[in-house]
Amino acid sequence: NYNRALDFYMRRIPYLKENEKTALATNYNNIGMIQEAIKDYPKALEYFQKALDMHRATGNKRMQGGTLVNIGIIYFNLKKYDEALAHLQQGVLIIKGEGDKMVLSIAYESVGNIYREQKKYRLAEEAYQESLLLSKDLRDTYGIASATRNLGATY
Question: I need a labelling partner for 134 at 20 to 30 A (CA). Which of 10, 14, 45, 140 fits?
């Protein structure tokens, strides 16, 4: 139940002290994910941005990269492809340095989705291939199936 989960996360905010920025940032990210699930994209962006600001303040690069990917996905859903691509590319740069292959695979798949929507099929294929390689390396069967499906949809 998204509304119930959202209620609990919102009630948690006042209890997280200013010196608990990592927990507060995670809480904001969770709220953003719920807002995304219920397709309230403006609210999702608001909370993902709050999370990103806190991750930057704490220097948590891994979470910065993941949150940039989340923001990019929201912009994709809003069909704001240039903004989506800019955030995803920023996320990819950070995530590569942090070595989080799972999030990197998701980021590449999202980049491929943008390029496919823009009918830039060669670039979409390259992004999906990157996602597929990472998914194979992780032995992530869902990621392999998803990247393979997207490769097929590109042709």
Answer: 45
Inter-residue long-range contacts of 150-155, CB under 8 Å, 24+ positions, other chains counted: 150/109, 150/112, 150/113, 150/116, 150/124, 151/125, 153/116, 154/112, 154/116, 154/121, 154/124, 154/125, 154/128, 155/121
DSSP result, 23-37: HHHHHHHHHHHHHHH
**What is d(CA 155, CA 141) in angstroms, rounded to the nearest whole number?**
22
Please state the three-class secondary structure of 74-132 as a single string.
HHHHCCCHHHHHHHHHHHHHHHHHHCCHHHHHHHHHHHHHHHHHCCCHHHHHHHHHHHH
Give the number of residues written for the chain: 155
Could you read off the pLDDT tens digit of each residue along the chain, which spans 155 residues? 899 999 999 999 988 876 688 899 999 999 999 999 999 999 999 999 999 999 999 999 999 999 999 999 999 999 999 999 999 999 999 999 998 999 999 999 999 999 999 999 999 999 999 999 999 999 999 999 999 999 999 98
Task: Say what the pTM is.
Answer: 0.93
